[in-house]
Amino acid sequence: MEVRHEPVLLEEVLEGLSVRPGGIYVDGTVGLGGHSEALLRASAPDGFLYGFEWDEDSLRRAERRLSVFSGRFKLFRANFAEAPEILAREGIRVDGILLDLGLSSFLLEGSGRGFSFLREEPLDMRMDTRLPMRAADLVNRLSYPQLVDLLRTYGEEPRAAAIARAIVEARRRKRIETSAELAGIVARAVRPRKRGEHPATLTFQALRIAVNRELENLKRFLTGAPEVLKPGGRLVVISFHSLEDRLVKKAFREDARLKVLTKKPIRPSEEEVRRNPRARSARLRVAERCA
Ligand SMILES: C[S@@+](CC[C@H](N)C(=O)[O-])C[C@H]1O[C@@H](n2cnc3c(N)ncnc32)[C@H](O)[C@@H]1O
C-alpha cells in the first residue's frame, strides 16, 4: 500500500540540528525516511546517517527511498532506546540526533495493526511485531482497576472509570478483537471531550503507549543520548502529547551535559497544520551538548 508521510517541522529540524556537510547524524525514528532523506541532502556530499526504526515494513520502504545515498547511511531495525549503547559500543560520536515520536501515516493507515479507531483491524498496536504483548491482550486480560490505571497513566483520560467499565462489560459477552469494536464500545460509553475528537482517542493513545513501552524507551534514550553527542552536538525531539513533552523538557533541563536552546517548544505554523493536520500537536525542543 502506498502511503505518503510528510515530515513534520522539517526546516526547524534542519536548523535545530544545525546540519552541515560532513556531519554525522542519527535519526532514531526513521519511519518512511522523510527526515532522514532531508538530513542526507543537507549534509551532502559526505555527511553520514545512522537510522533506527522498529517497524520492519517502514524500514524496508525507507531503505528503498534512501538508496540514492548509498554508502552514506546505515539502518538498524532496533529500538531507539538502544541507539546510544549501540553507537557507543562502536565508538561513534555524532553531531546531531533526531527523534520524531508518535505514529507515522504508514503505521496508522497502512500497517493493518489496529492503530486507528476508524478501521476494522486486529487490535495489535505493536510498532515492532517482535514485542510480546498486543493491545487486545491488555484490553481482554487486565482487571477493571488495572484498566482504569492504564487509561489514567498513559491516556490522562478523565473518563477512565466509565470506559474501563464499558470494556469489562463488553468482553463478558465477547472477546474484543478489533480496533473498530473497541472504538464502538468507548463511543457508546462516553461522549467526545472536544468537538471533532473521537471519544476513543485517549484510550487508543494509552494502549499504544503501554504496548510499546513508549515512555520507558524515551527515558532510557534521553539518559544515554548526550553521551554519544560531540561537544556542540544537537539533540532535537519532536513530541506529540504532553506525557512525552514533559519528559523531554525535564530531561533537557536537569541534564548537566546539556544546554537548552528552546525555552518554549517550537510549534508548527498554521500553514503547516493546514497542509499536514498530523503536525497539529507537534512540539519540538532542542538541546546542545556542552563542551
Ligand atoms: C512519526 S514516525 C517518523 C516519521 C519520519 N520522521 C519520516 O519523516 O518519515 C515515528 C516512527 O518511529 C518508529 N518508532 C517509534 N518508537 C520507536 C522505538 N522505540 N524505536 C525505533 N523506532 C520507533 C515508529 O515505528 C514510526 O515509524
Task: Characterize the structure shown.
This protein is an alpha/beta fold. The chain has two domains: 10-106 and 214-289, 3-Layer(aba) Sandwich (Rossmann fold), CATH 3.40.50; 115-212, DNA polymerase, domain 1 (Orthogonal Bundle), CATH 1.10.150. Helices cover 45% and strands 14% of the residues. It has a seven-stranded mixed β-sheet with strand order 3-2-1-4-5-7-6, with helices on both faces. The protein binds S-adenosylmethionine (SAM). The site of S-adenosylmethionine has 23 residues, from helix 2.
Task: Give the structure's gist in a few sentences.
This protein has helices at 10-17, 34-42, 56-65, 83-89, 105-110, 135-141, 144-155, 160-173, 179-189, 201-212, 214-228, 242-254, 270-275, and strands at 24-27, 48-52, 73-76, 94-100, 229-239, 258-260, 283-289.
List keywords for this structure.
2 domains, 291 residues, binds S-adenosylmethionine, DNA polymerase, domain 1, single chain, Rossmann fold
CATH fold-level assignment of the largest domain: Rossmann fold
Care to count the β-strands?
7
Distance between the termini: 46 Å
The kinds of small molecule bound in this structure are: S-adenosylmethionine
Number of helices: 13
> What's the helix-strand series?
HEHEHEHEHHHHHHHEHEHE
Helix amount, in percent? 40-55%
In CATH, the homologous superfamily of the largest domain goes by the name Vaccinia Virus protein VP39
Strands of the largest sheet, in order across it? 3-2-1-4-5-7-6
CATH class of the largest domain: Alpha Beta
Q: Give the tally of structural domains.
A: 2
Strand residues, percent: 5-15%
Our Rg estimate from Cα atoms comes to: 19 Å
The coarse silhouette is globular
Largest sheet composition: 7 strands, mixed
Q: pLDDT under 50 segments (min length 5)?
A: none
CATH architecture descriptor name of the largest domain: 3-Layer(aba) Sandwich
